[in-house]
Amino acid sequence: MAGSTLGQLFKISTFGESHGFGIGVIIDGCPANLPIDLEYIQSELDLRRPGQSKITTQRKESDTVQVLSGIFEGKSTGTPIALLIPNEDQRSKDYSHNKDVYRPSHADYTYDAKYGIRDYRGGGRSSARETAARVAAGAIAKLLLKQHGIAIFAHVSAVGTIEAPNLSDLSIDELYLQREENIVRCADPATAHQMIDCIDQIRKEGDTIGGKVSCIIRNCPAGLGEPVFDKLHAELGKAMLSINAVHGFEYGSGFSGSEMRGSEHNDIFIPDGTNPRTLTNFSGGIQGGISNGMEINFRVAFKPVATIMHNQQTINAAGEASEIKGKGRHDPCVVPRAVVIVEAMAALVLADQLLRNKNSRLD
Amino acid sequence: MAGSTLGQLFKISTFGESHGFGIGVIIDGCPANLPIDLEYIQSELDLRRPGQSKITTQRKESDTVQVLSGIFEGKSTGTPIALLIPNEDQRSKDYSHNKDVYRPSHADYTYDAKYGIRDYRGGGRSSARETAARVAAGAIAKLLLKQHGIAIFAHVSAVGTIEAPNLSDLSIDELYLQREENIVRCADPATAHQMIDCIDQIRKEGDTIGGKVSCIIRNCPAGLGEPVFDKLHAELGKAMLSINAVHGFEYGSGFSGSEMRGSEHNDIFIPDGTNPRTLTNFSGGIQGGISNGMEINFRVAFKPVATIMHNQQTINAAGEASEIKGKGRHDPCVVPRAVVIVEAMAALVLADQLLRNKNSRLD
Amino acid sequence: MAGSTLGQLFKISTFGESHGFGIGVIIDGCPANLPIDLEYIQSELDLRRPGQSKITTQRKESDTVQVLSGIFEGKSTGTPIALLIPNEDQRSKDYSHNKDVYRPSHADYTYDAKYGIRDYRGGGRSSARETAARVAAGAIAKLLLKQHGIAIFAHVSAVGTIEAPNLSDLSIDELYLQREENIVRCADPATAHQMIDCIDQIRKEGDTIGGKVSCIIRNCPAGLGEPVFDKLHAELGKAMLSINAVHGFEYGSGFSGSEMRGSEHNDIFIPDGTNPRTLTNFSGGIQGGISNGMEINFRVAFKPVATIMHNQQTINAAGEASEIKGKGRHDPCVVPRAVVIVEAMAALVLADQLLRNKNSRLD
Amino acid sequence: MAGSTLGQLFKISTFGESHGFGIGVIIDGCPANLPIDLEYIQSELDLRRPGQSKITTQRKESDTVQVLSGIFEGKSTGTPIALLIPNEDQRSKDYSHNKDVYRPSHADYTYDAKYGIRDYRGGGRSSARETAARVAAGAIAKLLLKQHGIAIFAHVSAVGTIEAPNLSDLSIDELYLQREENIVRCADPATAHQMIDCIDQIRKEGDTIGGKVSCIIRNCPAGLGEPVFDKLHAELGKAMLSINAVHGFEYGSGFSGSEMRGSEHNDIFIPDGTNPRTLTNFSGGIQGGISNGMEINFRVAFKPVATIMHNQQTINAAGEASEIKGKGRHDPCVVPRAVVIVEAMAALVLADQLLRNKNSRLD
C-alpha cells in the first residue's frame, strides 16, 4: 500500500525514480506566511548532490530544484508546496545489465519479490537519489524551525573504526564552520584528515566502508513529542532508519546505557529559573518520549555501500547462479553526503512535532 | 495531538493509566474469522505481569484480560476488538509524594511541560503498565502471523555487560523452552545464571541495571515492508523505540556494520529453488526495507530503570531544589519482563505489513 | 481494514456491539485541561437512549457512561479519554431467529458478504446502538467548542411530508427550550403536534416513517475547514452520512440551489467592522470549504426504519426464500433520537477542524 | 494542516494553483503491474478541459498530462505515480483586479481569513482547475476498476429545473454513447436539447445556472465499504461534496426516502443463485454502508457558478464597500464539465475500498 508519506501535520510525500523524469516531493501542512528562501534550499541540495569531491561518486547531477506550487511572492501560502528535481544524467544503458541479475545487498530481489516488476535503471525508486527530495523538504522544515530558534547539526562522527572525539563544547556555528572545512564533513579537523585518507584508500581498492553520523538539536523547547507510540526519539529513529543503508539508531546513552546502573544513569534536575537543567544528559534531551529542553543527541550507523568494483557471485531472476561485474560510479563511503540527509530528516520530524504540540493543551 | 495509535491496517489504539480504572486497547483491522484463543492472550500477559519472581517488582497485579467487543463465538468478526485489563493494585496513596516533585529521568517534568496537568499516580499514562495493552494486542497479532507460519522469538541477550552467546543453531521451540527455564528469560542457561546473580546483587544494593533484548523472526515471506519511509526495519525500530526505557535499536550488522567494508558485508545470493538464500545475513533479512525471506534479527537496548532505592536530589514543580526518597516496588532490571513486549511489538508491525502487502500488486 | 476512526486531531475510535459487553469510544487528541462535566455527558446520552417516550422504542437501556481513562481531578489530561457504556438489556434470545435470515434493508447480508461471519444479535456492530459512543464523544467535543463560544443546534424539521417552518429568528436558547418541550424534538410547537400524531398513527399500524433533521452552527469563527478534499461541508457530509439510515445531506442552498441562477444565489458581502457579513446566506456559512463566520446550516435525510411489525418475504443465508416475522421493540421513526447524534457528529467535525486550524499560518 | 490527500490505500495527493506552474497529483498505493494507457488518461482530461463548446468557458488549456514517475514500460511499478498538467494560459494580469477585492460566493475572503495570504490569480488553489488532477488520478482508478469489471457512468440529469427522465433500462455503453452525442452531456437527447437552449440563453444574459449530475456504478461486488464511519456512501458523499460548487448529495431513495414508510421503502430480497437481488433498490446498492451487489446510484447538486458578467457590490480586504465588474471567461453552467469529475471521484473512492476490502477476512 501507500508508504511514501512521512509526518502527520508537516507531511511530505516523495515520488520519483533514479533514472526517470526526476525526483520530487509535496509538502502538505506547511503553515502560511513562512518566507521561503530558494537559494537556501538549493544550498542544502548542494551538500547532498553527487560529484562534490574525490571521495564521493563522480556521477554528475546539478540537482536543481524547481517550485511547482505552494509558494507565492516568496512565501508559503498554506497550500501544498511541490518541488521537483529533474534528473539529468540518465545513462540508462549503464544499467541494462541489471535487468535480470540481483545485485547483492541491494533491493533488486526484494522489489521483484514484492511487486513482480522493477525499474532496474539505477535502482529505480530504491536508489538513494530519492533522498534529494527529502533534503529539499527538510530545508523548508529548517526554515520553519529557525523561526522558533531551533538549530540542528550533524556531522560524520565515524568512518570505519576511526571515531571523532566529543565536541559538545563548541557552538553550532563553530561546528558548522569546522565541518565544512573538509570534504568528509567531520567537525574535528584531525579526525577528518584520517577519515579522508581511509576513504581514499578504500576507493582505490574498489571497495566501500561504513560509518556513523552524529546529530544534535539545540534550543528545542520542552514538550515536543507524543507519549506512547509517537515518542520524539521513536519518530527520529524511524526517520533515520528510513534512510538508505542505515542499520542502527541510538539516542542519549544509547547502547552503552544498557550497561549502566540507574544510580549513574539518572539525570539529576538542577534548579535554573523557569527552565530546569539536568546535571548529566544520558536521557539525550528526551524523557518519556517528550523533549525536556536539554540538547537532543543521537547517532546513526550506516553500513558500507553495496556497490563495489569487484566481481561478485549472485543469482539472476530465474534463480540461476550469475555474476555481477564491478563497474559504474558510486560512493566509496556514503556518510559525507548523508550528513545533510540526517539533518533534513531530523528537521522534518521536529517540524511535525512542533505543529502537533500546538494542540497539547487549552490556550 | 492524537498519538496513541500504531499501525495502518492492523491498527491498535491504547488507553489507560497506571492507577486509573484500567489499561486497554482497541484493535481495528483484524481480519474476520481469525480464531481467538483467550487463554493464549492471558498466557502472554502472564509473561509481562509484575510479581513473577524475585528479580521483578513485587507489585501484585493479576492482569486479567477482558473482551469488550469484536469476538463472537470464538472468532474475530472484523469489527474492533476491545480488550480491557482492569487495575487492581491501585495504592494511590503510595504516590502522593510525587505530586509536586519531578523524579529524575522519569516523564514527570516533560508531561507537566507539555500538558500543564499530570496524573501523578504511578506515572499515569507514562507508566510501563501501558505496555500490558500492547502485549494483549500483540498476542492477537501473533495468532494472525501463526496462520501464515511466521514465528517470533525474543530473549534477554545482555544484562549490564553480561552477554549471551549466539544461539542461531537452535530452533524456535528449543529457544523458547530454554528461555522459559529461567527467570531472567535468557535462552542460554549458563549466561542466565550469571545474569540472575547480577540482578539479585543490584537489587540488594537498591540499584537498577540496563540490558538488551534480541529478537528473531523466522519464516517471514519475502516482500513485507514498504520502501521509502515505512521500511520494515524502520517500522520495527519505531515500535521498539516506543517501548519505555529503550535507547537504541539495530538490525542485521547494526552498529558494527558501520565498521565493515562492502566486500565483507555484502550478502551473496545462493541459488536455492524458488526462494534464494544468502550466504551471510548482515542484511538481517531485510533489503531496501523489504523482507528477503531470510531470518530477520534485531537488538534493542534498554537503559536502567530510573526508580532506585536511594535518595536523590531533584527539583519540584516550583523549580526549587527538592529530594526524592527511595521507596516503592520496582524492577531492578526491566528486560526479563520486556521480552514479551518486544515480541508483541514485532508481531504488531509484521501483522500490519502482512496486510499492507496484500495490495502490492495485481492478483 | 480499520474503519472505526473519525477525525485527525480530535480523533475518536468506537467499539462495541448491540448485544455484547457494551459500547465504547476512545477520544485521542482532546487538549489537556479541559473541564469535563460527566453529568453533561450523561444528559446528552439521555437524549439518545431508548425508552424515552411513546414514539420511541420501548427497549430499556439506562446508557450509563463510565470513564475508563484520560480524566483526572475533573479535567482532561491530554491522554486518551476512554468511555464505556455497558449493555444491560441483552436479550440475545430475541434475535436467534435472525441468525440465518437476511432482514430486508438491514446490513445482515452485506456483513456476511464482507466478513463471512456476523454477530447476529440485534445487528451487532451495525446496530444504531453504536451511536451512543458517538454521542458521548460528541458531548466532550461540545465542551471544547463551548470554550470557543461555538453553539450547535439540531431539531426534527420533517417527519414524512410534515415540514417545520423556518425558525431562524430564534436564539439557540429559545430553539433548545422549544425543542425539548415536546417528545418529537421539533422546535416549532404546532408542527411538533402534527408530527407526534403522525408517528403515533404509523406506530399503531406497525409501520415506520422517515424524516429530516436540520442543524445550525452559530458563532463559528471564519477559517475552519481545509480546502480541497477536507472541506468543512465535505467533512460534515461524511459524518452525517455515516449515521445509520441517512440517505442525503445538503448545506446552504442545497439541492434547491441547483435550480437557481448565479445572480440570485451569490451572497453579497456587507461591510460590518472586522467581520464582514453577507446579505443572504445561500453559501450556508461555508465558502471554498472554509467557514466565513456566518451561520452554518445543513439538512440530513433519514430513511424509514427497516424493522416493521409486518411479515416480509426475504432469503436465508443459503439463498433460499424465507420469511421475516414482524416482532421486537423498535422505533417507528428514528429522527427524535437522531437529533443529538447529528449535533454530536457536527461537534466532532468542528472540534477536529478547530484543532487543525491552529497550524494554518505562522503565529 | 495537511488536507490535500484522499483515500487510505489508493491514496492521492494533489498540488498546484490555477495560474502557477501547473496542477499535479501523486497516486501512492496503485498496485504494481497495472497497464497504464496514457491516451485514456488524456481522453478523460479532454472531457473536463475548458473550451470544449459554446456552453463552456472559452479559456484555452490543452491540459496535456505528463508522467513524472511510477510507470515503467507501460505498467505501474507499485511506487508513487506522479502526474503533472502544466498551466498554459496564465494571463495573470486578468486577475490583478482581484487582489484586494472579495468576489461574492468565492473563496477569496475565507482563504484570507484562514491563511492571511492568498494567491489571487484566478482563485489559486481554490480554482476548479485543481480538479484536473483528480480526473487524471481518477482515470487510473478506472483502469484498476476495469480489471474487476466495475463500470461507472455519470451524466447531467438536471440543468436548473429541466430534469432528465429515468434511463435505467439502458446499458452503460448505450448511456455513454448517448451522452457524448451532445455538448451538455445528458444521456437523454430530448432533455439535452432543452438544457443546451437554457444554458445558451443564460450565457447570453451574462448569468449562470446550477444543475445536477447523476451517477451509477454497475457490477460492483458485494462487500465494498467499511461499516461505521467509512461507509461506502459516506466516502462517496465526502468525495462529491469536495468538488467545487457541490451543495448536496443523496443516494438511493435520498431526500425523497425521508417521506416514505418502511413498508414501501424496504428492498425485498429475491433468491437468485449465489448473488441475491432485491426487488426494489431504494437502498441504492448499499446497506449498512457496504455494497450489496445491486446498482449503486447517487445524485450530486451543483450551485450556479459564482462568476457572472454583471457588476456586483462587495467589500475589499480593508472591509470597505467595493464593486466587482463582470468580465472574464467562465462557464455559464458547470455540470457538463463536472460529469467526468464526478466519475473520477467515484472511481477513486471505489478503488480505495476495493483495496481496503482485501483484508476484511482471512483467505
Task: Provide a descriptive summary of the structure in words.
Chains A, B, C, D: This reaction introduces a second double bond into the aromatic ring system. Chains A, B, C, D: Its EC number is 4.2.3.5. Chains A, B, C, D: This is Chorismate synthase. 4 copies of one chain form a homotetramer. Chain A has 363 residues and is an alpha+beta fold. Chain A has one domain: 4-Layer Sandwich (Chorismate synthase, AroC fold). The first copy, chain A, is built from 9 helices and 18 strands. In chain A, strands 1-2-3-7-4 form a 5-stranded antiparallel β-sheet, with helices on one face. In chain A, a hairpin with a 2-residue loop joins β5 and β6. In chain A, α3 crosses α9. Chain A starts with a strand and ends in a 7-residue tail after the last helix. The relative contact order of chain A is 0.17. Chains in contact: A-B, A-C, A-D, B-C, B-D, C-D.
